[in-house]
Every structure is written in C-alpha cells, then in structure tokens.
Amino acid sequence: IHWAEKLIDNYGQWVDAISWHEWLVRDLIDTTRYTDAVTQASDLLEKYSEKLDDSTALIIGQTNISSGLSLSPYEQETFFAALWWASVVIQSSLPGKLDQIMWFKAADDPVYKKGLIQISENGYVHKPVSQSMSFINNHLYPFVMNISNEHPDIDVLVTLSEDKTMASILGVNKSKRDIRVDISLPVTGGIMKSSAFNKYGVVETDIASATNRKLTGLIPKETIFSVTLLVDKEMD
Prior knowledge:
alpha+beta; six-stranded antiparallel beta sheet; three-stranded parallel beta sheet; 5 helices; 24% helix; 33% strand; globular
C-alpha cells in the first residue's frame, strides 16, 4: 500500500487502476483481511482524488488459498475451497468499493493445481470452488448495502439490483455446526426464493420472514446460501 501511494503521488494522472494480489490467508476466519485490504485501497483513492480519475478501479488481480506451489489437496479439491471463495468474495465486497476479483487459476496445470477445473484426457471436471463461483455470480447485484455482522462463522452480504426492485442476501456458514441466524434487513420485502448448497449438493434452509425487515432461520453447517427479496418500494 505504501508503494502504491508513492506511485499515485508521483504519477496519479496516468493511473487507471490499483491492482494487487492477495495471498497467504489459509483459513476461513481470517478472510476479514480482504475487507481491510479493499478499505485501505479505497482510502488511498479518496486521499488522492484530485490526482486520480473518478473511474479509477480497484482490482484484486489474483488470489487463492495459498501462494506459490504451497497447497494441499484438502484445501484445493474439497468443499473447503468453495467455502473459502464464498467468504473471500463476501469480505471483499462488503466495503462496496471493489471492481473485480480474480481466482488463480482457471484450470489445473502440471505445476499449479489450483484451477477451477481439472482437465484430463477424458474431459474436465468442475471442482467445488467452481460450483461456488457459479452460485455466487447468480446471486449478486451491483449495489452493495451497508450492514453489520459480528459473527465470526457467518459471512453475509446484501446487494441491490440496478432498478432497486430486488435484493439478494448471500451468505456462508463456515463452521462445522448448524447456526440459527437472525438477519435485520436494510430493506423491506418479501422472500421470492431461497437456495443453498454444500458438499452434499442442494440443501434446504428454513429461512422465513419474522417481520418485513427481519429474517430468521437455521443454516446447515458448511453451507453457502442465498435469499432473494422483492423490495416493497423503490429505494432512494
């Protein structure tokens, strides 16, 4: 971040984006470091706003569970990677400032077996992390809403559609136990649909509206989930 600041201070008029790699977070709790990193970069943009264009992007250009050749089949091949990616995307998105985040790599090769898919002479197989990415992409809207969450085992992100008529709650239970959640919503609206999956496949959740601004339910252990809401009225 100090190196980036020196570059911006001297050459800000030629900077189109701040892009960095984020590594060495190998557990499911320490992913809050992604929120911190994005916030730091965003603060840098604000500090040098007079030298930078308003469209200057923030991009995590490369990330994975471990750096270099250091990896384990457990981390990369199992549902652990799916939980990790869901947590990382949510934590990176919470400040509402990140433009893009990219997984390293798209497909395994003989050296780096860190891809979304495995390729063999018989074709290819999607890893759990690839399934996680597809689920997340289908349950994200462009506007991030401000929420607070102090539970270390549950990550939650609320996004709003461009026309402000739909809201999506994307979450992940990272723990090895079922957890009952009570979610106070920044919008009012009825549940359109809910979905969830874990290493066993598609699973059911009992999430329901306690009031029009509160959801409650039991999230199964090690499960990624989403709730889509139809917003009652157009948001300002």
